[in-house]
C-alpha cells in the first residue's frame, strides 16, 4: 500500500492494479465492482472539484486527475482483496490480547449492525407513507443518538469487564505525604 502512494506514474499504478486483480483470482470482478462502488462518489466529487478549479484560473492537469483516480481505486481494490484473503483472527493468533481485542471489535460491529437493522425495520413497519425530508432527518438524528448512547453504555461495560480481567492496570498512586 505504501508503494502505491509513492508511485507517481499512472502506468505503474495500472500495472499494480492488474497485479492485484490477478492476486484476487476469481473474486476479482466482484471485488473490483465493490471497490468501484466504494470510490465512485469520492472520486467523482474530487474530480469535479479539481476540474472546477480550472474555472478559477488554476491549471488543471489531466494526468494528475487520472493518477489520483487510479491510486484511490488501486488502494481500495487492494484493501478489499486483502480483507477477503486474510483471516484477521488467525493473523493475530500470536498475541492473546490482540485476538481478544479484535474479537471485541468484531462483536461490537455485529451488534451495531444488527441494532441498526432492527431500528430501520421498526421505523419502516410503523409508517404508512414515505417520510418527508425533515422527518427523515429527525429519525436519523434519533437513531444516531440511540446508537451513541448504546456505544457509550457498551464501552463502559466492556472497560469494566476488561479491567476485571487485568487488561488495565491502575496507575500507582503516589501516597507519600512527604513527611
Topology:
Layout lengths: L1 H5 L3 H15 L3 H25 L9 H24 L2 H4 L4 H30 L7 H32 L15
Helix pairs in contact: 2-3, 2-4, 3-4, 6-7
Overview of this structure, please?
With 179 residues, the protein is mostly helical. It is 75% helix and 0% strand. The longest helix is centred in the C-terminal third of the chain and has 32 residues, at 133-164.
SS elements, strand count: 0
Mean pLDDT: 86
Task: Compute the CA-based radius of gyration.
Answer: 24 Å
How do the SSEs run, as a string of H and E? HHHHHHH
The CA-CA distance between the termini, in Å, is: 58 Å
Largest sheet: none
Features:
179 residues, 7 helices, mainly alpha, single chain
Short note summarizing the structure:
With 179 residues, the protein is mainly α.
Amino acid at each position: 500500500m505504501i508503494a502505491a502512494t509513492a508511485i507517481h506514474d499512472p502506468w505503474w499504478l495500472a500495472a499494480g492494479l492488474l497485479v492485484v486483480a490477478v492476486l484476487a483470482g476469481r473474486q476479482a470482478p466482484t471485488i473490483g465492482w465493490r471497490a468501484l462502488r466504494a470510490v465512485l462518489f469520492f472520486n467523482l466529487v474530487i474530480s469535479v472539484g479539481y476540474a472546477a478549479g480550472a474555472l478559477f484560473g488554476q491549471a488543471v492537469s489531466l494526468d494528475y486527475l487520472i493518477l489520483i483516480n487510479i491510486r484511490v481505486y488501486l488502494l481500495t481494490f487492494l484493501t478489499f482483496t486483502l480483507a477477503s484473503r486474510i483471516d484477521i483472527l488467525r493473523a493475530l493468533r500470536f498475541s492473546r490480547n490482540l485476538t481478544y481485542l479484535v474479537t471485541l471489535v468484531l462483536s461490537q460491529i455485529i451488534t451495531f449492525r444488527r441494532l441498526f437493522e432492527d431500528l430501520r425495520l421498526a421505523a419502516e413497519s410503523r409508517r404508512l407513507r414515505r417520510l418527508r425530508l425533515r422527518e427523515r432527518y429527525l429519525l436519523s438524528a434519533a437513531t444516531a443518538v440511540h446508537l451513541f448512547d448504546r456505544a457509550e453504555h457498551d464501552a463502559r461495560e466492556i472497560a469494566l469487564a476488561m479491567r476485571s480481567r487485568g487488561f488495565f492496570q491502575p496507575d500507582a498512586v503516589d501516597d507519600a505525604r512527604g513527611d
